[in-house]
Design brief:
Helix 1 (53-70) packs antiparallel against helix 8 (214-229) and helix 14 crosses helix 15. By secondary structure, this protein is of the alpha/beta class. The protein has 16 helices and 11 strands. 38% of the residues lie in helices and 14% in strands. The chain is globular and about 65 Å long.
């Protein structure tokens, strides 16, 4: 393609989108100005899909929502001030949702690149508000997103225990996620997603680059897949802590995982029910739990110890991957180790990671960031600082942990600066807060999570 100069781009175009029921392939097409088209493909297994009039219309609405949300991967390359939709019109409610996703979901991207995106991304509103979506008679079945980490496995086992029929679902070709999915013994759905190759070329030519709200994109993909499959639930595993971002001096809150937070879940889930399909339920099963409460739940069985990994270095699109399932040096490795430590025997945890991360003085800076000690929470999907502080204080009181280098350092250097009532573990384990879990299911799950 011709040379790309992000500063000369004036307009981003949502060119067109289509979904072929006979193949299960969705095409999402974008362009800058009058430049070459960029086509992303999403492939839903199980075709051909026999879509009646009402469900076909709902699939079309879900497809357009996906087209708009997935465009964030491409828009960010130049962040132009003008946006156009070439082949369909949207109403004000859809525009408001998508604009919120771009502004907040690109918060870290904007911060790291020194950009101010407030008020910049505006979609043209050219359609009247559509009538409220109607029920489609979808069958009771859950597509459960699996990411290979502890959270989704907790959700899968909770749904199994509650008697909810489920298919474990993931997007992309990760063999680690596939191994976890196979370990569940449940039906599997591996959705294909291929980014437009032109995007990588733009990056090489100096496009703006950085973090996008991938959970928002994956949510929209799974809503499309659920409608194609004719099922009534899309389930994620985002906990209460995901709503808490990094507190940046002079900037305010920047949330790396905004699209895993409650604000996105509420807005997106309500939009799907009002504007796409009234009986399609999108929710996070773990929303009322903290990260520590999820860790406690995971630690109750060792069934997945040799299969799970939350280390994000395993899931980079490009770049090196660790030889083992845990690199041991990234914020996710640090946090998962710390979160699990209060709830499982030390020997078991060290066996999972292959070493004791809390007995390595060189990792002090990484753990300090988790504790929000002289640093802000990392730009990663990790728990709140107060959770990390409570977990570390708990370990400092236990004989098997208190002599480890970083636990000992916490007790002598950091803990004296903190109020004792901040460091109690029990308040972090309270099951509480807003959620979208269906009421009957929540009643079955609540006692298990609180036990």
């Amino acid at each position: 393609m011709t040379a790309f100069d992000k500063d000369q781009v004036t307009r981003f175009r949502f060119v067109r989108c289509d979904f072929a029921a006979d193949t299960g392939v969705a095409q999402l097409v974008y362009a800058f100005d009058d430049g070459p088209e960029m086509t992303e493909t999403v492939t839903v297994p199980g075709a051909p899909f026999h879509l009646d009039g009402a469900r076909a219309a709902a699939v079309q609405r879900a497809l357009r929502l996906l087209h708009l949300i997935a465009g964030v991967s491409y828009y960010k390359a130049a962040v132009p001030a003008q946006v156009a939709i070439d082949s369909y019109a949207i109403d004000a409610a859809t525009a408001a949702l998508v604009e919120t996703v771009y502004l907040n979901g690109l918060g870290e991207f904007a911060y790291r690149n020194g950009l101010n995106l407030r008020g910049r991304f505006r979609l043209p509103v050219e359609a009247q508000a559509e009538p409220a979506a109607q029920p489609l008679g979808l069958r009771e079945h859950a597509l459960v997103a699996i990411g290979g980490g502890k959270d989704s496995l907790v959700s899968i086992e909770a749904l199994r225990h509650a008697g909810v029929a489920a298919t474990v679902t993931w997007i992309g070709g990760s063999q680690l996620i596939r191994a976890c999915a196979e370990r569940t013994g449940l039906p599997m759905l591996n959705i294909g997603r291929t980014l437009a190759p032109e995007l990588f070329e733009l990056n090489r030519q100096g496009a703006w680059n950085g973090h996008i709200p991938v959970t928002a994109v994956n949510s929209a993909i799974m809503v499309l897949a659920a409608l194609a499959q004719g099922v009534d639930q899309v389930v994620f595993s985002n906990e209460r802590s995901a709503s808490y971002g990094s507190q940046i001096a002079g900037t305010g809150e920047v949330n790396h995982q905004w699209s895993k937070g409650w604000a996105f879940e509420k807005a997106f889930g309500e939009h799907v029910q009002r504007h796409v399909a009234a009986d399609l339920h999108y929710y996070s099963l773990l929303r009322p739990l903290s990260e520590l409460a999820v860790a406690r739940q995971f630690a109750r069985t060792d069934y997945y110890d040799a299969h799970f990994s939350s280390c994000n270095r395993n899931f980079h699109i490009l770049g090196e991957r660790p030889v083992n399932r845990w690199c041991g040096v990234c914020p996710k490795c640090h946090f998962v180790f710390l979160a699990l430590a209060p709830f499982m025997p030390k020997t078991r945890l060290v066996r999972i990671f292959g070493r004791n991360l809390l007995d390595d003085g060189e990792q002090a800076g990484g753990f300090d960031a988790l504790l929000e000690f002289q640093d802000h929470k990392p730009f990663e999907c990790v728990g709140e600082g107060r959770e990390s502080r409570a977990a570390m204080a708990t370990l400092a009181a236990r004989p098997e942990w208190k002599e480890d280098v970083l636990v000992k350092r916490f007790a002598s250097v950091i803990q004296p600066t903190l109020a004792a009532d901040e460091l109690k573990l029990e308040p972090q384990l309270v099951i509480d807060g807003e959620h979208r879990i269906p009421a009957a299911l929540w009643e079955r799950l609540r006692a298990d999570f609180a036990a």
